Amino acid sequence: MVTQTEVRRKATNQPNILQKLWQEKGSEFALPLIGILGFLLIWQILSSSGITRLPAPSSLFTDKRTRDLLFYPFLDRGGLDKGLFWQTLASLQRVMLGYSAAAIVGIGTGILVGSNRKLNQMLDPIFQFLRMIAPLAWVPITLIALPNVQLAAIFVIFITSVWPILINTTVGVQQIPQDYKNVARVLQISPRKYFFKILLPSALPYIFTGLRIAIGLAWLAIIAAEIVMSGVVGIGFFIWDAYQQNYVSEVILAVLYIGAVGLLLDRLMAFFQRKILPSDNRA
Questions:
Q1: Long-range interactions of 7-10: CB distance < 8 A, separation 24+
Q2: Dihedral sign for Cα atoms in the order 24, 27, 32, 37
Q3: Neighbouring C-alpha atoms within 13 Å toward the C-beta of 51
Q4: Would you kindly state where each structural domain of the chain is located, as residue ranges?
Q5: Are 135 and 220 in contact (CB under 8 A)?
Q6: For the chain, which terminus, N or C, has the lower number of CB atoms within 10 Å?
Q7: Do residues 110 and 200 lie in contact, with contact meaning Cβ atoms separated by under 8 Å?
Q8: Are 156 and 221 in contact (CB under 8 A)?
Q9: CATH fold label, 68-281
C-alpha cells in the first residue's frame, strides 16, 4: 500500500526531473526560438514603419490570397493553379530524378577515377572546369539541347549535384590506406571482395559527405531552373509568377517552404549517414 509520504516524495521529485530536463535541454530550444521571434519582431517593425517595402510577416495571415495558400496547401484547380504542397512535390520529384542520376554517375565515376591515377590526371581538369559553372548558366544550353522542359530541369539538377559526389568519392578512394592495399595484394583478394570489404567501407564517409552537399545543391538548382522555365508546376516557377504579379506575400511564403524543405532534406541525409556509418567513421 502506497503511503502519503511516498506520494509526497514522488510529487516532489517530478518537478525536479522537469527542472533538470529544462536545465539540460531548455537552451537548445529556447535560444533558437528567441532568435526567430526577435528576427520576426524586427522585420515587423521595419515593415510597419515604412523603412522597407517588404511586407511584414503578419501579411501571411492578413493577405487573403496568401492566407488561402497557407491554410489550403492541397488546393488543386488544375493546370498551374495548385497549392504549395503540389508545387513543392513537383519540384521534389524532379530533384529526386536528377539527384539519383547524379548519385549513380558520381559514385561510379568517382570510384573508377579514384582507382586509376592516370585517368584522374586526364579527367580532373575537365571536372574542375565544369563544376565551376553556375546552375543558371546551364539553363539556356539545356533548353537548346533538350527541347523538353522537364528533361532540361532534371539535367540542370544532375549537372549541378554530380560534382561534389564525384569529387568526394574520388578522394575517398584515393585515401584508402596503403596497408589495406598491400594486405589485399598479399592475400590475393578477389576484386569483388576488395570492393565490398575494403574500398567501399573506406570511401563511404567521403561518399556521404558528397551526397549531403549535393542534395542541397540539387534543391537550389531546381529553384533556379524553374524560375526561368515557364509553364511548369513547381515552387520555383510559382515564385517567379507571384513576383511578376506583385504578390510579394506569396513569394515570402514560398521562400519559407523552400527553406523548410531544404532543411528536411539535409536532416534526412544526416539521418541515413548516422544509421549506415559507424560513429567513428563519420566525416
A1: none
A2: positive
A3: 8
A4: 4-54, 68-281
A5: yes
A6: N
A7: no
A8: yes
A9: MetI-like fold (1.10.3720)
pTM for this prediction:
0.81
For position 231, what pLDDT does the model report? 75
Say which residue the cell 533538470 belongs to: 20
CB 149 within 8 A of CB 231: yes
pLDDT at 7: 46
Question: What is the distance between the alpha carbons of residues 66 and 72, in angstroms, rounded to a whole number?
Answer: 10
With cell 531546381, the residue in question is 222
The answer for residues whose C-beta is within 8 angstroms of residue 254's C-beta and 6 or more apart is 84, 87, 235, 238, 239, 242
Are 62 and 190 in contact, with CB atoms under 8 Å apart?
no
Q: How many CB atoms lie within 10 A of CB 188?
A: 7
CA-CA distance, 122 to 131, in Å (whole number)? Answer: 16
Locate 168 and state its grid cell: 568526394
For residues 188-215, give the mean pLDDT. 89
Phi and psi at residue 147, in whole multiples of 5°?
A: -65, -20
Q: Which helix (H) or strand (E) holds 37?
A: helix 4-48
Distances from the Cα of 186 to the Cαs of 165, 190, 193, in angstroms?
31, 11, 14
- Summarised one tens digit per residue, pLDDT across range 129-185 is 998 988 888 888 888 888 788 888 899 999 999 999 999 999 999 998 888 888 888
Mean pLDDT score of the chain, rounded to an integer? Answer: 84
According to the model, what pLDDT value does residue 56 have? 83
Of 84, 118, 95, 114, give the one whose Cα is nearest residue 202. Answer: 114
Give me the residues paired with residue 82 across strands: 76
User: Which residue in this structure is represented by grid cell 528533361?
Assistant: 151
